[in-house]
UniProtKB/TrEMBL annotation:
The keyword Glycoprotein does not apply. Coiled coil: none annotated. SMART domains: CRS1_YhbY (SM01103). This is Ribosome assembly RNA-binding protein YhbY. NCBIfam families: RNA_bind_YhbY (TIGR00253). Keywords: RNA-binding. GO terms for molecular function: RNA binding. It comes from Anaerobacillus alkaliphilus. SUPFAM superfamilies: YhbY-like. Residues 1-96 form the CRM domain. The keyword RNA-binding applies. The gene is yhbY.
Length: 96
């Protein structure tokens, strides 16, 4: 689990990132979870945008993705989800 201080730090790091995935009409599927897991391993911190036509609620999407990728949900702001997972090989972020 992340502490409040760590979440604040990760939010500040994520601020300038652009969403690299979009969840739309198809909602969340195994293939998407696999791709997001790979992206988390490469980058550690990613943004995902939930489109208007997604049938799931953005909080449901966030919960499903963080559980499926075994990552930490940093924040859901508007229709954007921020996820963090410590990378095994490409560790770049130092948490406070």
């Amino acid at each position: 689990m992340l502490t409040g201080k760590q979440k604040r730090y990760l939010r500040s790091q994520a601020h300038h990132l652009n969403p690299i995935f979009q969840v739309g009409k198809g909602c969340v599927n195994e293939n998407m979870i696999k791709q997001i897991s790979e992206a988390l391993e490469a980058r550690e911190l990613i943004k995902i945008s939930v489109l208007q036509n997604c049938e799931m609620d953005k909080d449901e999407v966030a919960g499903t993705l963080s559980k499926g990728t075994r990552s930490e949900l940093v924040q859901v702001i508007g229709s954007t989800i921020v996820l963090y997972k410590e990378s095994r090989e490409n560790k770049t972020l130092q948490l406070p």
